[in-house]
User: Fold these one by one.
Assistant:
Number 1:
Amino acid sequence: MLKPKKIQLLDDTALKQLPMPSRRLFMQRALSLGGLSLLSGCALSDEESVEHALMKVSQFNDRVQAWLFDPERMAPTYAEAMMTRPFPFNAYYGREDIPEVDAEEYRLEISGLVADKHAWTLEELYKLPQTSQVTRLICVEGWSAIGKWGGVTFSTFLKHIGADLSAKYVGFKCEDDYFTSIDMATALHAQTLLAFTYDGQTLPPEYGYPLRLRMPTKLGYKNPKHITAIFVSNTNPGGYWEDQGYNWFGGC
Amino acid sequence: MNNRAAIVHPAWLRLTHWINACAVVLLVLSGWRIYNASPIFAFTFPVQITLGGWLGGALLWHFFAMWVLIGNGVAYLALNIFTGRIKRKFFPLHFKDILADTLAALKGKLSHADLSVYNAPQKLAYLFIVLDVVLLVVSGLVIWKSVQFPLLRELMGGFDMARVVHFVAMAALLGVLAVHLVMVALLPRTLLLMLRGR
Ligand code: HEM
């Protein structure tokens, strides 16, 4: 039997405009199968147990990916001529809502399992040793694009602030209320960059001014933009999309 | 046919066949929803016939069903090889027999007296399905973990090409499955064999 579900009328764009879709909403959508609906006739408790089971499998997939992840293996790099132009803009909101960050007032907050918790100004960040790389960003949606990011190797930064490198997670909070977190092994990967530049220029607002994390070893939604706070923790901080059902590890 | 008739399909084969069929249905329907998020070709699938509701839900289903497909597929292949069934049932397979049996079938003259023996085009179709599913798993692995499997990635022609391979292999599987289902419909007695073994 098919139950009408108003919520199914929302498309992805509409979903992206909801500030924080609830878990309930996520599962009603995850189970909808339209005309072939096998499960939407089930009682609510059944839907919850299906949700629970699928999330358990997703957590199992996190462990498989952590096991597959080889810290020594580098993602392919490309010639600058192969860069995708223009590089796609992507966020959970439209261009009109790209946050504006004031360079003077900006501070990068540091907290959690680190020795030095002082907040960083942009000027201080720019003094760190910089490097750049041309890599492919793979989006969970299936498209991919090649871009050039520059900044400080994230492991260098973590050592700089005296982070506990044996901790499990590094979390990120962003100016646009986005948040995500990664495993320490990926945080220490040689291609994981705290990026200030795109294509040799100061990071433009649409790509995450003033500061973003860039990892060719993880899907796009694991690469936070407009970062305002970084913290090191042993409890998994989750993430904006991850809490709604995207896989937490999100590795490539 | 009485109950003492010889078993044509052992229980493990029937079990792996039906588990596989369920996994393939889940994978195809959720796969269409994933495809829709960033189509490779100039069309998308009607959302009503996809599984998952949104991209995140479809991915959860897909990455659940893939384990069922892989685990079940490994069991199917291992049992087929170690019991010697694969040699008995599928070989020898000669090109001239495929041609002759197909022609006979089209003329309605192919014998179905002994359903414990697969005819040549049937053997070919099943072997194609097995190899195509292997290709689906390999190209799927490249899409899932393109950085961790560099060799497979290059074999598939890169990340973007792996998506095309994955899609085409899905389409080819559905093509052969359509024929498979028509054949079962034409000879419903085979369905009984696949359900109770005799
Ligand atoms: C619900 C739909 C399906 C039905 C009704 C069905 C029915 C059957 C039947 C009756 C047979 C035995 C044929 C015979 O004894 O002559 C068979 C064999 C087979 N089917 Fe299906 N099938 C279905 C779905 C699938 C799917 C989705 C796949 C693969 C993706 C598949 C792959 C195979 C293979 C490989 C064999 C041969 C197995 C062996 O002998 O090792 N079938 N199917």
Number 2:
Amino acid sequence: MSNDFYTLNVNGEDHQVADSWAGESLLWVLRERLGFPGAKNACEEGECGSCSVRIGEEVVCSCLVLAGSATEQEITTIEGLSAEGELSDVQQAFIDAGAVQCGFCTPGLLVTIDDLLEKNENPDDLTVREAISGNLCRCTGYGRILEAVQIAAASRRGEKRE
Amino acid sequence: MPAALILMPVTVARSLDHALAALEECPEAIILAGGTDVMVQVNRGSMPVDQVVAIGRIPELQGWSREGDWLHLGAGVTYSEMMGEEISSMVPALAQASRTVGSPQIRNAGTIGGNLGTSSPAGDTLPTLFALEAVLTIRSSTGVRKLPINQFIVGVKQNALQPGELIEKISVPVLEGPQEFCKIGPRNAMVISVASFTLLTDVKESQVRSCLGTVGPVPIRPTEAENLLSNGVNWEKNKVSSEVLEAFASLCADAAQPIDDHRGSAAYRRHAIKILSRRAACRIFSEDNS
Ligand SMILES: Cc1cc2nc3c(=O)[nH]c(=O)nc-3n(C[C@H](O)[C@H](O)[C@H](O)COP(=O)(O)OP(=O)(O)OC[C@H]3O[C@@H](n4cnc5c(N)ncnc54)[C@H](O)[C@@H]3O)c2cc1C
Ligand code: FES
Ligand code: FES
């Protein structure tokens, strides 16, 4: 039982987690042990979505994932959505639409929206609202976030910006 | 073989046998499925974590199968999967209920087995499973037993699961006819139900089945109301009179055993059941007094 460690695959690379407590959440391990501070911690009870990450093909709240149970799965965090120093299409759209205020909700929203657009390049407003219903934003009132999604969707469909 | 198992604090089970062996070794281990109930408590510090058996990747608990008029759902089936076309065509009310759960993130992780494991009066799959008289297959390293859902859930967050056991699958009949699940809460997403209601039809038998959620320690079948509606519907024309609808809604409200709590008062909950039951019936049958 001693020298326990387990391996998490984050953004395509294996990371060893050693000497951890069994009850640590994936969010905590990502932020505090592995140096991925992108996913944010606001509630630790699944209500806010600021900790959203993708595991395999699905977006989940990393605060509700037991880290030690997430071995041998592909974990994608906000850090993995674009190459170092570059902006993804969704990130750029957030800037263009002015969809970032305090920014605390932004990483979770970006992960959720990236996943939505991967599955549906032309989502209508209701689909977007339902997709982001688990990501709370206290600042923007969502209008500009909805706009950003449509900008990113259009650019993914290869449409030119007016 | 089980005796030789050396348990890590977190056992990621590869098979049903692997999980059952780990549970035999450590019957008090926390069974972890999607984690959406367990981790909330762990994060709050209200659930000590010593040994965990993670069952999220056991092939035998995934997916569903159809056997004649019965649908077998693996305990690991998620809400997102229940919303998919296949399951929603067989048990539409379960798919509707799934869509009201939490948020997409919660629905991707949370499972039907976890909803049963938690046995909360507000569990959104429970009313439909009670109305369908679902049968649970429960397994341990020493054997298997089947339990009807009303013998499994016995009180507020209390169920008949013994240490060393886990829920393998949930079996429900596939009925012919429309179904409706309705739920009331303060907003559309991320709400724990204040009152919920399911109404299922069995057109072959000219019968309805229904159940009230969140208005009692366990889901409640309003049998008098069910009988009244089954007998009052014109099944050939799919019609029902306003009088029968009113009587049905009143009997449903009478059957509720609600409490006052931070989510709503008992009186509000009883009123909500009256509204929901009439609404569900109106969505299924056309109101016609001719
Ligand atoms: C933000 C948020 C919103 C939510 N909204 C809703 C909602 O709208 N409606 C609703 O009904 N619920 C809701 N829930 C509660 C929760 O998502 C559900 O109860 C879910 O079904 C739990 O499933 P899980 O797989 O995550 O279970 P876990 O958390 O992994 O486990 C829950 C319990 O069941 C036991 N268990 C799990 N699987 C098995 C098995 N196969 N055999 C035996 N025991 C088992 C566990 O040991 C534990 O006691 C919400 C939770 C959160 C965090
Ligand atoms: S921190 Fe995970 S949902 Fe809020
Ligand atoms: S920008 Fe502040 S919470 Fe969304």
